[in-house]
Design goal:
Helix content: 40-55%
Bound molecules: phenylalanine
Shape: rod-shaped
CATH class of the largest domain: Alpha Beta
Structural class: alpha+beta
Number of domains: 2
Strand content: 15-25%
Number of helices: 12
CATH topology of the largest domain: BirA Bifunctional Protein, domain 2
Strand order of the largest sheet: 1-5-6-10-9-8-7
Largest sheet: 7 strands, mixed
Order of helices and strands: HHHHHEEHEEHEEHEEEHEHHH
Distance between the termini: 95 Å
Number of strands: 10
């Protein structure tokens, strides 16, 4: 056999073995395989050069090249298996987790004080048989004012600075709008509790343009103002203190007649007089009254057969009194130092 070719074969074999052994990844090994055994590889080229060899030397030459190819193939295949195993071990080692490591602490959240107060109010009145009804936040003038005995030219519309959306559509200024929606749907006896957001163009330490109200409505035969005060006493005892008292003062709302403003004995001093109650011993907590005949009529309820009372309170106000919060903005700032104080 041609000495020169023979030598070239040895060099190629050594070169291939050397490179294969140095390969540090499956990818590198694959490249070595292609370099020598691929379609344009060096060993493949040797096979192709067979036709330049004298016919009598061809069988010996062919056998030698095939030996080299087989040797290389076996070697690379072995290396591939080892390489894959090593790579898998490395991957698994990288993914190992130390189960004895301390976990990352997750702080538990808590209900917002407004949600808490709202839930507490619902609990109190649900215990007296009230059902929850939620009306829409975007209301028509009809439900927010007109049906509540507050026609367009009524001065009471100025009592609440309203955000209008379009002519006739507004952000509700009071949950009282829900009274009408419910009475249109349901015949008495009615015992409804309606919590929700309301909106007024108002902004200071105790007023915010968005706040929450809790509306109550009771309509049945023979309902009186005494029933209202009885329920409000029950509410004050559960919400504030067993010794809390309530008092009704005459007031005015277009949708109630008579109308009252309800005070509770001061939550800070118990009635002796202090800066919170400005020395009076009383704090105003809600508006209420007997449902105006006109409102009942507007909803198709006969005012000679049925009477009712309604009340509306600001949930922020109740929460501020109960928890001694001095600025309404604290509710919406979402400072965790504030919110954390309401954890159970
Ligand atoms: N809607 C009144 C307000 O927002 C409160 C109220 C409700 C008064 C029901 C009487 C009866 O000021």
């Amino acid at each position: 056999m041609d000495e020169i070719k023979n030598e070239a074969m040895e060099t190629i074999l050594q070169e291939a073995e050397g490179e294969a052994e140095k390969a540090e990844s499956s990818r590198a090994l694959y490249e070595v395989k292609m370099k020598f055994l691929g379609r344009t590889g060096k060993v493949t080229a040797l096979l192709k050069s067979m036709r330049d060899i004298a016919a009598e030397q061809r069988p010996a030459f062919g056998k030698r090249v095939n030996d080299i190819r087989e040797k290389l193939e076996t070697m690379i295949a072995d290396l591939e298996v080892k390489m894959k195993k090593r790579e898998l071990e490395k991957k698994l080692a990288g993914e190992q987790i130390d189960v004895t490591m301390p976990g990352r602490r997750r702080e538990k959240g808590a209900l917002h004080p407004i949600t808490r107060t709202r839930n507490e109010l619902i609990d109190i009145f649900a215990g007296m048989g009230f059902e929850v009804f939620e009306g829409p936040e975007i209301e028509t003038e009809y439900y927010n004012f007109t049906a509540l005995n507050t026609p367009a030219d009524h001065p009471a519309r100025d009592m609440q600075d309203t955000f209008y959306i379009t002519d006739g559509l507004l952000l509700r200024t009071q949950t009282s709008a829900g009274q009408i929606r419910l009475m249109e749907k349901k015949r008495p006896p009615i015992k409804m509790l309606s919590p929700g957001r309301v909106f007024r163009s108002d902004d200071d330490a105790t007023h915010s343009p968005m706040f929450h109200q809790m509306e109550g409505l009771v309509v049945d035969k023979g309902v009186t103002l005494c029933d209202l005060q009885g329920m409000l006493d029950e509410f004050a005892h559960t919400m504030f203190a067993a010794t809390s008292k309530t008092r009704l003062r005459p007031s005015y709302f277009p949708f109630t007649e008579p109308s009252v403003e309800v005070d509770v004995s001061c939550t800070a001093c118990g009635g002796k007089g202090c800066p919170l109650c400005k020395g009076t011993g009383w704090i105003e907590v809600l508006g209420a009254g007997m449902v105006n005949r006109r409102v009942l009529e507007n909803c198709g309820v006969d005012p000679d057969e049925y009477t009712g009372f309604a009340f509306g309170m600001g949930i922020e106000r109740i929460a501020m009194l109960k928890y001694g919060i001095n600025h309404i903005r604290l509710f919406t700032e979402n400072d965790v130092r504030f919110l954390q104080q309401f954890k159970d």
